[in-house]
Amino acid sequence: MKRICCLLLCFTAISQGAYSQEARNDYFPDGTKISGWFLDTTKVELSDLGKAYLITDYGVVNDNLVVQTKAIQEVIDAAARQGGGVVVVPKGVYMSGALFFKPGTSLYLSEGATLKGSSRISDYPMRPSRIEGQSIDYYPALVNAYGVDGFTILGKGTIDGNGLGYWNAFWERRKQNPSCTNLEVSRPRLVFIWNCRNVRLQDVMLVNSGFWTSHFYKCSNVKMVDLRILSPAAPVKAPSTDAIDIDACTNFWVKRCYMSVNDDAIALKGGKGPWADRDTCNGPNANIIIEDCTFGYCHSALTCGSESIHSKNVLMRNCSVNGCERLLWLKMRPDTPQRYEHITVENIQGHVGSFLYAKPWTQFFDLNGRKDVPLSFCDSIILRNIRLKCNVLFDVGVNKNTHLSNFIFQHVDAEAANGSIDKRLIKGITLDDVKVNGALLR
Questions:
Q1: With 219 labelled, which of 16, 150, 285, 324 sits at a CA distance of 20 to 30 A?
Q2: Can you give the pTM of this predicted structure?
């Protein structure tokens, strides 16, 4: 009943022209109030993180060629033994394999500092992990935090995945087997954070990841502020280098970040497979705010899927998109039960390939013996106050197992090579002040 009332309130306010920007700023798409946690823009300072442990004071040297995993890990361990603190990387280049931060420890990268990943996969020994909607043993990231509440990465420096060798290996494998999966080629992520609360990433650059750039699994209260996240689309494409993967997380805030990667910029995950909603390793995403960000090239600025079972209360606003293939991508995976609901994208400008892209995604379809096909739902999706150039406005397709309902397009001004909208594909679609190539759509 509460959900129905919230929807009615939303539709009534829109029809009356009374749904003000000020009112929207205070509430999630389902009508629940946004907590003050999302409004606290105070920046963390180095002095807030406790005792500083400068890695060069512990035998780590500025060397672009020598892998120093053991020496850097010993600094992290020393900080943990002495009650916690912040591991400081000074100006220079320091190469390492997988590092594991302990409770009470954080990472600071000074301006001009680069923590660079090893190009040898043997420097990332397998351990329990989470990847592509599965909880399996897999290669860790360069920077890892398991159960480290308050984990923080700060500074004007860079974490560089040194991914070229991994990218080349992937494309060579893809030549041999055009249908190969991501996991057939051994590649590390750049940052992996598992089961942590009150996480902060601020000011750093994350570049050239071998695989996903930053991955958060079962975390809560995560803030990513003023980051630059980059991987190339040319001359060598950096495959599957998603900027931010949000996997079964609650309360997640991305603010003033720049993202340009050769895959999805922000992807909401949570699990895959015909019984994914029954697996306790999986879970929903809820209360996600993405604001004041700039997107360069990427497959999509915001993607739900492909490994996702439930995402709710997602708000993307006040952003610029400059060359994304898609603005909003709803990946409807027909071998996985899915529900995407209460998603709002507003106050957006720039140019994209497809404005809205929602279609069944069948690349790795596998029912694993399930006789019936799971159903997928998208409900209560709002796109408003958007001014864009695009190739296709409404890139939507459905089948009998895919259900789209209650979509609102409001105050949209688009230039589009294909600007048609097929209302038959969505049950309950509202067009309010939608102009395409200067003409009002009805």
A1: 324
A2: 0.94
